[in-house]
DNA sequence: CGAAAAAGCCAAAGCGCTTTGGAAGACTCT
DNA sequence: AGAGTCTTCCAAAGCGCTTTGGCTTTTTCG
């Protein structure tokens, strides 16, 4: 059942039927009702390919997925996706993942924009002066950044969490507990979130006349193994820290294992605070010693990004509004006063 | 730059240009070269929306993503996606995720087929007599099932691993080591993979005149917490098992924690074998006691599914061929002889 | 009451591609 | 040389929708 048939069966023109269905004003309400009615009764659904060719609207949002044999997709992604999908579903939006060579995403962005494959895109894990953000901005497609970039001469729309504030609070707590040597096991140091977290820790230390020594900060991919290695290196070196801030729950698994392997204990010898993105399958309260965390649901962020994308597509949201969500500091058993 | 302009500038008809570019035989090789050349020089790329309207081909593969506030997307998904994306990239395929109410995926499947939104779909985590498989089969869109369903009066194409064989081998090893009371901490018991794994364990036990008692098998969502709870329940009950087979590395984290909490040790008191889907961020050799595993890269499966989908779309693959991949049994420190 | 404005509808022209049904010219064969 | 066969190209008809421009008919208003 296509528009032509429907129009014919109603003894109306395609124009009128189309307008009736799309809510244009120049059609009699009585007629509109008839049309809507017939459309529903016959289960008419406009062919998206045709509509798309005519209007350019796709009803899809895009994400360029970096891939490659040596590229690991972050497990956070799936949780973000849960939120995004949940919102998208309620608005009949689909998500198209365009895989791209991790080293050349530009081609793919250009393609999906030139081909009008999606109505909007989002960008995740941005870095300062992220080229993707600059590119997408000039290409003129609506977009939202999940996270923040920095150092542009233009503003853009983003949804981020207060990474600096979160780690500032975490560090402050540890300092208040008497810790003087803090360490930071961070994610990829080229990404903004990691920079912000480090800044938060440094600021808290500085406020007490302390510093974060270079040996005590490491930036690694967020795997269990890297958490383990970093911790061993930290605790076996001179000036071992008495407290660790860690950027992910997965790395925290490795931290805990390393501490145990060294015959030390949490929080007796080392206090630990990790960032929790709220995975359903790994929860900080279930660690052998319940983990103190900075907590922010990445799933909610996904839903929010979808919501904003939808708003931008329909023209409800404009401008370069950035929003920063506060992060909860949840204190559990993994922190204690500094050892004597 | 569209076809019309390109044709005009070459003083050829759109027909000829189109045919030249799409490799049809009825065009002079000399002409074809000229066309290809001009196309490349001017960066001509056929508009996919138009092509799509004309041919029905989309260059996209689809996946219906169950969503909802209480629906958690499996972290395995992201690893599968890595492989799928990696292959899709090299073949200029995009993946469209259509979020659906987890309790009504049928509507979404019907929509994406009726609207011709994708050229093929894949289905994951199937159950016996899975309705999605039956539906997609009747809808007539090319598809591949990742995993297996059962109990249909038709055949279909799938890529699965030998879950039964894997857990049969694992159980056999444990039995050989003298274990008599095995337990199975399984995934969702409604899914085929879980059924097959249980069958594998039972078969191995039966071969030695043993049985898997009901109390010793549990089917739960694969979270760390569920692994913990199941293990406590198992080990604190009467007839506590001396060996555990576990369906995921994430649950195995909980198993290890529970064993430790009970003051027991692996493999001294309990042997443990888990299934490893090969996550980059959590590796069995890095468990406090290196974990024996049944190993199969879910990422490779993703790539394979993409490959087969691409083959089906282009007509290179037909028929209902199912393939079952063998699973490696990797023995590490977590298994030992049964305690006296 | 007649002109101007508004309401309601339609035919047809896109959107940019593929594909059908020729047609013109070159070549082969008897 | 004429008939038949390739080869190579083209005009035009879709694909199913939206939208422009215009045409009636009805309503409004001085």
Automatic annotation (TrEMBL), chains A, B:
UniProtKB keywords:
DNA-binding, Transcription, Transcription regulation
PROSITE patterns the UniProt entry points to: HTH_LACI_2 (PS50932)
Gene Ontology molecular function: any one: DNA-binding transcription factor activity
Q: Which InterPro entries does the UniProt record give?
A: HTH_LacI (IPR000843), LacI/GalR-like_sensor (IPR046335), Lambda_DNA-bd_dom_sf (IPR010982), Peripla_BP_I (IPR028082)
Which Pfam families does the record associate with it? LacI, Peripla_BP_3
- Report domain HTH lacI-type positions: 1-55
Report the superkingdom from the record. Answer: Bacteria
Descriptive protein name: Substrate-binding domain-containing protein
Q: Which organism is this entry from?
A: Mesorhizobium ciceri
């Amino acid at each position: 059942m296509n528009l032509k048939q429907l129009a014919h069966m109603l003894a109306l023109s395609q124009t009128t039927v189309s307008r009736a269905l799309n809510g244009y004003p120049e059609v009699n309400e009585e007629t509109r009702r008839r049309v809507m009615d017939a459309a529903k009764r016959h289960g008419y659904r406009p062919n998206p390919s045709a509509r798309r060719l005519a209007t350019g609207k796709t009803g899809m949002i895009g994400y360029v997925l970096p891939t490659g044999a040596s590229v690991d997709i972050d497990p956070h992604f799936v949780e973000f996706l849960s939120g995004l999908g949940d919102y998208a579903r309620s608005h009949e939006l689909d998500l198209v993942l365009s895989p791209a060579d991790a080293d050349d995403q530009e081609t793919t962005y250009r393609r999906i924009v030139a081909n009008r494959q999606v109505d909007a895109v989002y960008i995740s894990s941005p870095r300062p002066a992220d080229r993707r953000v600059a590119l997408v901005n000039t290409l003129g497609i609506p977009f939202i950044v999940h996270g923040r970039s920095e150092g542009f001469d233009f503003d853009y729309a983003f949804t981020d969490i207060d990474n600096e504030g979160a780690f500032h609070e975490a560090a402050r707590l540890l300092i208040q507990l008497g810790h003087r040597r803090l360490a930071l096991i961070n994610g990829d140091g080229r990404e903004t979130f990691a920079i912000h977290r480090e800044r938060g820790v440094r600021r808290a230390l500085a406020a007490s006349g302390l510093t974060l020594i270079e040996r005590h900060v490491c930036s690694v991919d967020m795997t269990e193994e890297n958490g383990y290695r970093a911790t061993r290196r930290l605790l076996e070196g001179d000036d071992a820290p008495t407290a660790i801030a860690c950027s992910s729950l997965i790395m925290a698994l490795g931290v805990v294992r390393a501490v145990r392997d060294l015959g030390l204990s949490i929080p007796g010898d080392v206090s630990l605070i990790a960032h929790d993105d709220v995975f359903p399958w790994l929860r900080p309260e279930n660690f052998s010693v319940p983990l103190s965390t900075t907590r922010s649901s990445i799933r909610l962020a996904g839903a929010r990004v979808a919501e904003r994308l939808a708003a931008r597509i329909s023209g409800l949201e404009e401008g370069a509004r950035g929003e920063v969500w506060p992060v909860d500091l949840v204190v559990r058993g993994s922190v204690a006063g500094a050892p004597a």
